[in-house]
Amino acid sequence: MAAERHHIVTALVENKSGVLARVAGLFSRRGYNIYSLAVAPTDDERFSRITIVVDVESAPLEQIVGQLDKLINVVSISELAPQAAVERELLLATLDAGAEARAQVMQLVSVFDGKIVDIGREQITVMLAGPPSKIDDFEDLIRPIGIAELQRTGRVALPKLERQAARLRSVDVGPDGDDQGLDPMSDEAG
Domain range holding 105? Predict the structure, then answer.
């Protein structure tokens, strides 16, 4: 399997003016290619999370993380390989959809679990959120219809959650109803 070209770096940063400019400036000065960038406040108003999808061919990932770590307003950094992350992106698109194309647009929006958010005489604005591959597929299908305007947010990502269930221990209840606490995997359980 080929190595991933894009990696996701999330940085928890102080929610202060100029922090995003310093992060973007670092990438610009070093010649690192940013594929996607999204920033928003977290549940704690003191911090924002910057999600950067970087082209690891423009610089080694360790070098990018090391440079980010030197910035004073960066609180923590996480690296996420695409297979270890839950990624989502939002697309808004205004399509040229006169009477003959409306049914097709509405069907595509429905199939992709999107929404129609505005309707005009000859155009429709649609919204779709999902994994980047789903957004790419939708964009490819609407392109022949005619895109008047299109905006994508860039990726946001969090680590995938642990899916391994905790090992349960069997409880042996004695004749008086007390828990004997025997683990069926131990030698004592016999």
Answer: 86-159
Band (pLDDT 50/70/90 cuts) for residue 1 is very low
* 92 plus 123 within the same structural domain: yes
Q: How far apart are alpha carbons 126 and 113 in whole angstroms?
A: 11
Residues 96 and 134 in one domain: yes
Q: Is 173 helix (H, G, I), strand (E, B) or coil?
A: strand
Query: Sign of dihedral through CA atoms 144, 155, 6, 33?
Result: positive
CB 108 within 8 A of CB 61: no
Q: Tell me the sheet residues that pair with 151.
A: 92
Cα 10 from chain centroid (whole Å): 10
The answer to whether residues 74 and 91 belong to one domain is no
Residue with tokens 């946001």: 156
Residue 25, in any domain of the structure: yes
Return the pLDDT at 3.
52
